[in-house]
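Protein folds are increasingly written down as discrete tokens. With that in mind, we are printing a sequence and the tokens encoding its fold.
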Amino acid sequence: MYSYGWDIETGGLLLNSSPTQMSKEPRPVYAAELDLLGFGKYWRYERQNDTPYLWAEANKYWYRGRLVAETKGGKKQTRNGENGFTMYGESGIISTYMNVRNRYA
């Protein structure tokens, strides 16, 4: 796996030319997952699953290069409690993106 960084402009990933020893394996996050976790209480987004909204690395959720939420435990119960998730920053509107590009292309 090659190393990567966040593309603030597009919300996607920037692939670097250097390999990394450990992979965090980012994955796209769609509206269905946001709904399942209860993020719709804090963010406004179109309920569509054609284009992703965020990237996730394990239990951390990233929007345009900024950590916005982190899940804890195995259940969704409270916004900032045990077995729930922690939101970082403000609530608001999030828009879709999907762009992975090579920084050196």
Remarks:
- Helices lie at 31-37.
- The chain is about 5% helix and 35% strand.
- The mean pLDDT is 76.
